[in-house]
Amino acid sequence: MQENTMEKPTFTFQPTPEDISTQTGAVMVELVKVTKIYPPDVVALRNVSFTARRGEIIFLTGASGAGKSTLLKLLCRQERPTKGLIEINGTDINKLKSAATQRLRQNIGVAYQDFRLLPRQSVYQNIAMAMEVQFKSVKEIRQRVTELLDKLSLIEKRNKPAGKLSRGEQQRVVIARAVANAPPLLLADEPTGNLDSNTTLLVMGLFHELNESGSAIIIATHDKSIYEGSNHRQFELHQGEITQIT
Asked: What domains, with CATH codes, occur in the chain?
């Protein structure tokens, strides 16, 4: 196994007090009475209030169409709420201008349910791109990507085009890309949906490692095996409304 190169994550999209940006337990995500309505009158989320702290893993459960993916899209500002407040690291993200929004997204890792890989680029290139946009050194990128490929049993797929992989392999590449920069906030939408039990353990091990470094992780999932019996908080979404289960 490669040496762990993960550093403690910090937000850089806006100056913040050091104790807020690095202290485990500080509020990372806060939603207050957030509603999202898609035209003409489809209510995806209704009066959702929700808090996630540094060093916390949170599971979002609920049936398809309950609003899990919409909530994650709001947090990385792919969507905007119809009403309500969304703060990331103490900043109202609805007030961010374009440049600040881009900096915000560079500090949030997202494992998309629909993958969004570049199919003609290699596995290595797809993961490395996440680090290149943050101007990491070639040596650092090579070391980190190799480490992730090793941990997710993808070493032999290193130079293979992403479009030639199985869905389970593509999902692991997406996860590797999302965690490459050890982001302060990780959003994962059904991250184990195409994985067998052994590979699920690899992915969750990687998530727990990132979490132990101080990151907040929010996972939308149908997979009971990754949260049943854990001591992490679980929220259920039902018809756009949220309830804390544990």
From this structure: 18-244 (3.40.50.300)
